[in-house]
Amino acid sequence: MADGAVSENVVTTEILGDVALVCIDNPPVNASGHAVRVGLVEAIEALNAAGEAKAIAIWCAGRTFMAGADIREFGKPSKPPALPDVFNVIEGSAIPVVAVMHGTALGGGFELGLCCHARVAIAGSKVGLPEVLIGLLPGAGGTQRLPRLAGIPFALDMSLSGRQVPVEEAAQAGAIDRVVTGEPREVALEMARAVVAGDLPTRRTDQIEAAYDAEALAEAKAAAQAKTPNLVNPGKCVDAIAACNLPLPEGLKVERQCFLDCMETPQRAGLIHAFFGERAVSNIPEAKGPSREVQTVGVIGGGTMGSGIATACLSAGLNVVLVEVAQEGLDRGVATIGKNLDGAVKRGKMSAEKKDAALARLTPELDLDALAEVDLVIEAVFEKMEVKREIFGKLDGICKPGAVLASNTSYLDINEIAAATSRPSDVLGLHFFSPAHVMRLLEIVQGDKTAPEVLATGFALAKTLKKVGVLAQVCDGFIGNRILAHYGLCSGYLVLDGASPQQVDRALEDFGFAMGPYKVSDLAGLDIGWMTRKRKAGDRDPAERYAGDIPDRICEQGWFGRKTGKGYYLYDAGAPVPNPEVAEIIEAVRAEKGITPRDFTDQEIVDRYMTAMIVEAARVVEDGTAKRPLDVDMVFLFGYGFPRFRGGPLHYADTLGAAEIVARIERYAEEDPHYWQVPDILRRMAAEGTSFADLNKA
Ligand code: T1G
Questions:
Q1: 3-hydroxyacyl-CoA dehydrogenase NAD binding domain location, by residue (predicted)?
Q2: Which of 76, 344, 420, 692 could form a disulfide with 629 if both were Cys (CB 3.0 to 4.6 A apart)?
Q3: Position 312 in a domain
């Protein structure tokens, strides 16, 4: 079976009397890489050939039982034995095999348990089938063995949700035979002996019939299609489970084909790019240096952002001093924090006790002097440079030496803010995304003088808050908002030239966005963009086609979107409906500008919108505002609702190829050569045949 390779002793066997312990030790999570697969086959075949052991226990060293296939191997030529073949050898062992699971036995790890003849788990551990979250389905017997052990509904729940299930719950469903306490190796020895003594019954799944449940399968298939129309793998997963009424070898063949069908999809590549990107984005030297201890955070401003940031800090166990200028604003901020925490309790994200403890760590204050002893300050007040500089000037005199001074500004120049203090090295940007206690993105903005230790403190805070910290350099809008400003023009031009806001929204929602740009604008508040356009009116580039006439007219009516019940859509009748008066405004503006509206296909809307996003994203990488393409991808996945299965704007760009993108820009430039310009980086990539994935590796 094995290809003759000798495993790098990631799998070792201990013979103890009439039992054998097979240990997998492949840090960091015992993923079933090639050496593990070879080692497992060698170990089981050798024990069966020797014929001395009366029971075998498989356990894992380190913090967790096998956490699945090694997803770094995906997309590369697979090296035998494939995991399903390994598990068939184990299930076919004449000597009974018991799995002892601890930590998080996920994917192929849980499937390793399922192919054994008995499954034991250490209390408090979890099992899961998260393959659906990376564009796949359980591909090593999970869709065939789990229904036989625990029924089709439970198998559908686990494999379609990808959730981690407490082993106690899995035991109740029949997927695990026994939950014990103890250390993995000792439990393995005890359980192997229990098998020999007949105290732990064993069963082979190829001798168990699954109770067929056609109704559950049909419901799951319909739900998968409705919930994730863009994804292939959930439906394929149901198809595989539906084959569990065939003899096991037949069912395994169906599963394998369904799995391979998913392995080839771009969505699998996108979801795995997202998985690794989330870890790689803050795995950088700037995040690794020594950082300053943060126990107490001062938050200035109790508005939406300030109270959201305070909520995030309190929920992460930090103390918070919330400062507002007036009692009314302070009370409002405290009330918003309470509401945010209540929401977390309602959603089961936090216990009531934890909520009370969090609130007990909140100190509302009306005076900046209250920040004298905090470790880190996050200023979240009005987006006006003068206001921020005044506050930072005061903080300079109030805060203790070594306190980190951060601004939550979403686009203002951190260097200018830092210059208002005598300690610019302690200053950085911490740009949260609203709602700050929910959105996981945190742009960490490095000022020219920001000390390495202060930058590392920003990344340490991101980790404490369970956020995805992304390094950004100073520019107008940093990474995300700068790119948004560019492609926002594109959606404005689409409406000026003939598309309706609703068509643009629908086309992009079909592409995978949870919400189209016009629904997002209505949600955020149209007045925000209006203020920005007015702020920039003075330095507007005359060569740039103005896309603000329509939203300006809408705002002049006092229609700011959801918060006023009226914007691009009307919100008083439940689901948003297009605002007919906006259609009149669009018509009037087109007439005044002498525009003859033309039809756009949904595909052309997506192509233009995504090309505009890619253009500015490429520039952001080219000028170093973002460290790598994957940094831009993570900003959009965790801050802008970009469809995760597409991996992010620049991962998506790679699916088109630089040459195709350049050709599109040049085609669009015939209408508007100012807006549509090819960035040098894209022209170079097209000429060299390179990709953004290549740049990520550089
Ligand atoms: N393969 C390769 N590397 C992995 C890995 C995996 N499956 N899981 C984690 N890592 C790396 C990760 O990149 C990081 O590396 C380090 O381990 C610590 O991870 C046939 C086909 C297990 C809950 O989807 O959910 O089995 O950055 O930072 O927060 O049906 O990792 O240190 O270099 O996340 O303690 C199914 C994915 C695979 C599990 C631990 N399994 N992993 O979380 O640590 S498909 C998964 C996780 C499959 C079969 C199918 C989490 C964790 P580095 P970490 P953590």
A1: 296-472
A2: 692
A3: yes
